[in-house]
Structures
1.
Amino acid sequence: MPERSLLGIVARTGYWIEWWRRFGPASGNDPKLKDPFGRYVITTFVKDTNVTFAEAARHIAGVSAHELSVAARRHTTTAK
């Protein structure tokens, strides 16, 4: 079997079953994020692995801790 990364697996399942579409702003409008799919996948990965947003931003290129925390605070809830 080919070697897979955990982040890659989360991204593939998000793409296949589109669970990331359930996230979004509380207002119900379209998200104004640059890349909502990528932000939601990374945010889910970070929250589920108990990595801080700063640590994730340090190791994942093209994302900042602020962008991840905004996606987590404003676009994800336990109900969603």
Note: The mean pLDDT is 75.
2.
Amino acid sequence: MTTVDDGADNAVTGAPAWFDARPADAAEARALARSFLDGHAAPERTLADVLLVVSELVTNAVRHAGGVTAFRVAARPGVVEIVVQDASPVPPVTKEHRGQWLPGGYGWPLVNRLAEVTVVPLGDAGKIVRASVRHQDV
């Protein structure tokens, strides 16, 4: 189920516009995020960065952490926040390639280059990964 706040009262309150969902895969998460952000005037470069971060975080949750248990995208002036909760308490790790070209392990460092990232452990309930992508409003 997806809950959407259309942001109609944001001009007065300054509250972020947001939506919650539980996408089954990265493609669904990207489509939800794109649809939401199309209505919030995010610059094109910011949209590309956000979609890449969404894709990597959701893919990691599906492949390595038991799936997505919650997903949120919020927009407020100057920042888009992506929140992915998964079922694993194990924090993300950076894979060491030691000069070899091997598949996998490039997404987490990329997310950390594009966004300010916080990981919140939830014990047996998994973890929350929060990524904030900053931008200049147009």
Note: The CA atoms of residues 11 and 76 lie 10 Å apart.
3.
Amino acid sequence: MRRGSRSPEFKADAVAPYLSDPSHTFEGIGKDLGVSRETLRNWVRAERARRGERGTTSTKTKDVSVREATQQEPEAEIAALRAELKTVRKENQKLATERDILRKATKFFATEMNW
């Protein structure tokens, strides 16, 4: 598919997860859909502007809103990454425990099989 030839429906479907859940990142959604994070970021900004989520049409107010949104995006991404790291650490601990149990079981059965 040529660059810039994505349908409006595709763009809307790509933007929806990011706007609906702050734990999603441009990077993650972009990888899932095969678009760059900057492309997705631009689509999100366009959708927010279409919805009027950036404030008034005043240039000064709009610039402040853009700066605030730009500052909030990394903060939201950092919070999402921290939550993901916490989940991954829990899963890693669970897997380490299961691995230890399996090692002990293997040793036990290895000694039992030597008649």
Note: The longest helix spans residues 59-113.
4.
Amino acid sequence: MTPNTTPEWEQRCAALWDAFEETDAAQFRSRMAALTGQLPAGHPVAAFELASACDATDLGEDAVPLYRRALDTGLPEDRRRQAVIQLASTLRTLGRPEAAADLLVAERAHASDHLDDALTAFLALTLIDLGREREAAALALGALAPHLPAYRISVARYADAVTDPA
């Protein structure tokens, strides 16, 4: 739960997302607009959820200013990092990989949590778009290494060596 939301509101939001695959895109956005309209005007969670709904229904250009508004107005931490990743992903798909990389690199220095590997994955995709494939591969391998049942240390070392010119 975040400030100015209730457990009941959060449950309805989660239920709407659970029904995403079975819902027409325009109808999904309409339902999300109605749900977020129940929050106080200018609420950062409303902007984030609306941005996510636009993004998920292929309206990335509409999502970008909503993500920025959510982040600029104090989106609670439980959604803030998710918003950064989603905004960066959207910028990348809209042909702005430099802006996406800037966001993701800054976020890597900002915090560490359960979204670290997701952030790294999106940064690797962005680096590929920027023509930095070796760096992208090294990041992806480095993120994968801790999850391997064997060869963790070897893969982590090889990942470091991919970008080491020596």
Note: The chain has nine helices and no strands.
